[in-house]
Design brief:
By secondary structure, this protein is α+β, with helices and mostly antiparallel strands. The chain is 31% helix and 33% strand. The chain has four domains: 82 residues, conserved putative lor/sdh protein from methanococcus maripaludis s2 fold, CATH 2.40.420; 97 residues, Efflux pump adaptor protein, beta barrel domain (Elongation Factor Tu (Ef-tu), domain 3, Beta Barrel); 67 residues, RNA polymerase II/Efflux pump adaptor protein, barrel-sandwich hybrid domain (OB fold (Dihydrolipoamide Acetyltransferase, E2P), Beta Barrel), CATH 2.40.50.100; 86 residues. The chain contains five helices and 24 strands. The strands form six sheets. The chain has a six-stranded antiparallel β-barrel. Strands 2-17-22-21 form a four-stranded antiparallel β-sheet, with no helix packed on it. The protein is elongated and about 175 Å long. The N and C termini lie far apart (98 Å).
């Protein structure tokens, strides 16, 4: 093959980079891009815009709480909330400074008045008592010696007086013995005074030793140990004490009642008490005391309500709700548990089931419930995990859905 022919063949293999002519009837490229951009815009409109609108313009809803209503609701004149408090309580402290050596009681233990609860380290005090007792013994020994000497001197005086009368001894010997007797009487008085002083010191130290044993001034239940063994305690205001004792038989519920409703309350008036810790239980109560002061800032009066049948599970500082009744509860009514009532309009149908929309920090949760008959202005909830006080949406819109962000209407 000639070189010219080879060159022509190689030239025929060169790629033509010029745009190829479109076939007759082909789709222009710009039209393809228009279709793609239009599809993305439609997707953003139908999907992104609703999400953006929901984030910027939240649905406003009205809310109300699920309530725990007593079967004796028809008798209720007034309802108020408060806390359980003990009227007899004591923080048992030490009378002297010292380090805790032993604690004899445990939390939850029932103790009597005067019971020993702790002991402070008392080695130094016992040493001082031993020294004081030794000084007392020494003073008594000196007193006994002085009395023995007095007896001996008096015996000699009698002998010398007889000898003086016989003319054997001079009168000066008798006078000397009389002076010695007066001196020994003075020594006896001094020794007796020293004995009394040492004995008094010993008794004082023994009384102080009793202060190293800490006792309870009241009968009750130990609710808290305030210190541990080896910690230093001291008397006086502001010291934590050793233990805290509460007489649980003295617990009452303290509540504040509006001044304008005070005329509805009388001493010994029947009440119903429901504790937040045991919402399904009801307890009989009665007004124990109406306060003698008015809180001008809140326009309320403090009321104390006692338990007619004090339950063992009641503890200080528990939250409680008190309903003042027209008539006292009987045993039959008392055994009927409270009813959980949802506000009217909060229960709606979704997917054939009864649900409520729980309002929780700006978001709603769709929760299935089993409802019972109407009760007052609401509907009884027969089966639900929602506790009393749960906020639910009133008349939820048909488009409201689970997990949606909403705004509470003021």
């Amino acid at each position: 093959m000639s070189s010219d022919q080879l060159s022509q063949d190689l030239a025929s293999l060169k790629i033509d980079r010029a745009p190829a002519a479109r076939a007759s009837g082909g789709v222009p490229r710009w039209l393809i891009w228009v279709v793609i951009l239009g599809g993305l815009g439609a997707l953003g409109w139908f999907v992104g815009y609703p999400m953006l609108r929901e984030a910027m313009f939240k649905t406003k809803v009205r809310t109300a709480e699920i309530e725990l209503v007593s079967p004796a609701q028809a008798q209720v004149q007034l309802t108020a909330t408060g806390y359980v408090v003990a009227q007899t309580t004591a923080k048992v402290g030490a009378k002297v400074n010292g380090r805790v050596a032993e604690i004899y009681v445990a939390e939850g233990e029932l103790i009597a008045k005067g019971a020993k609860v702790a002991r402070l380290e008392d080695v130094d005090m016992k040493s001082e008592i031993a020294a004081a007792r030794a000084r007392t013994a020494a003073a008594r020994a000196r007193t006994a010696t002085a009395r023995a000497n007095l007896v001996e001197t008096r015996r000699k005086l009698k002998v010398e007086q007889a000898m003086v009368e016989s003319g054997v001894t001079s009168q000066s010997v008798v006078d000397e013995l009389k002076g010695r007797i007066e001196s020994e009487l003075a020594l006896i008085k001094a020794a007796e005074a020293e004995t009394a002083a040492a004995a008094a010191e010993a008794r004082t130290l023994e009384v102080q030793l009793d202060n190293y044993i800490i006792t309870s001034p009241i009968a009750g239940t130990v609710v808290d140990k305030l210190v541990e063994v080896s910690e230093v305690v001291a008397p006086g205001f502001g010291s934590p004490g050793v233990i805290e004792v509460v007489d649980l038989t003295s617990v009452v519920v303290e509540i504040d009642v509006p001044e304008a409703r005070l005329a509805q309350i009388t001493v010994d008036a029947p009440c119903e008490i429901v504790l937040d810790a045991y919402p399904s239980s009801r307890y009989r109560g009665a007004v124990k005391e109406i306060g003698r002061r008015v809180n001008r800032a809140k326009a309320t009066v403090p009321i104390k309500v006692r338990f007619v049948d004090r339950p063992a599970e009641v503890l200080p500082d528990m939250a409680a709700r008190v309903s003042f009744l027209k008539e006292a509860l009987d045993a039959k009514t008392l055994n009927v548990p409270p009813k959980l009532i949802a506000p009217a309009g909060s229960v709606v149908k979704r997917g054939g089931a009864d649900v409520v929309f729980v309002f929780d920090d700006g978001e709603v949760r769709m929760t299935p419930v089993e409802i019972g008959p109407p009760f007052g202005d609401g509907i009884e909830l027969m089966s639900t995990d929602l506790p009393a006080g749960t906020e639910v949406v009133l008349d939820p819109p048909a488009k409201l859905k689970d997990g949606q962000k909403v705004k509470e209407q003021e």
